[in-house]
Amino acid sequence: MIALFTDFGPHGPYLGQMRLVLAGCAPDCPVVDLLNDAPAFDPTASAHLLAALTPDLPRASVLLGVVDPGVGTHRAPVALQADDRWYVGPDNGLFDVVAARAEQASWYDITWRPDRLSTSFHGRDLFAPVAGHLAGGGDPAQRLAPRAAAAVADADRAAVIYIDAYGNAMTGLRSRTWPAETQLITADRRLPRAETFGAVAPGEAFWYVNSLGLAEVAVNQGSAADQLGLTVGDPITVVDP
């Protein structure tokens, strides 16, 4: 399986162009859109979101990740092998949280280059061919070289990392073990915890532990982003009981 994680959005030719390359390189591998509206131009927020989403990927999957505001610059192209899954994309921090939380992680430089390499679309020209090569059972040594990598701290991100179509604001805070009385402060509002949306009145803001195990700010039958004025990157403060 090849999973796509990008900030491309659903419109335009970009996903289709990458899918064409993947179909040519690994025609027998299904391609799944894991997420294509990652925080635009924000590898740091996207890294925490990616780490929360990928534990359910089957072993031996390949994740093609493109959140790459530095495309065409000196930033390196990399591959990460973490817990028997491959991650292919830019070396800009996008895969750092995955690596930090993995039981086993090995980094590689992408040494292969295609005949055509644009300065603005490495997702199509470089990362997709490498991802397809790995997913199709190709020898990693033909396109990758091992690299040493510094350890990355496994820290949560006390900020909004994603806002969904309902206006719910996902944070980079893992929160399954917090007491029920824990509150969050954001946008100068102190928010109580609720277990479900229906536990609070319509229009009331609160936070809960979402299905990924992350703290998420929400409004019952409303938009937390609109009501609280939240955007990706806004800080979150945890108030212990």
TrEMBL record:
Check the record and name the SUPFAM superfamilies matching this protein: Bacterial fluorinating enzyme, C-terminal domain, Bacterial fluorinating enzyme, N-terminal domain
Q: Which domain of life is it from?
A: Bacteria
Output this protein's name.
Answer: SAM-dependent chlorinase/fluorinase
Give the protein family. Answer: Belongs to the SAM hydrolase / SAM-dependent halogenase family.
Entry-linked PANTHER family: CHLORINASE MJ1651 (PTHR35092:SF1)
Database matches in Gene3D superfamilies: Bacterial fluorinating enzyme like, S-adenosyl-l-methionine hydroxide adenosyltransferase, N-terminal
Indicate the segments forming the S-adenosyl-l-methionine hydroxide adenosyltransferase C-terminal domain, all copies.
159-237
Bilayer-spanning residue ranges = none
Could you list this entry's UniProt keywords, alphabetically sorted: S-adenosyl-L-methionine
Q: Name one Pfam family in it.
A: SAM_HAT_C
Which residues belong to any copy of the S-adenosyl-l-methionine hydroxide adenosyltransferase N-terminal domain?
2-141
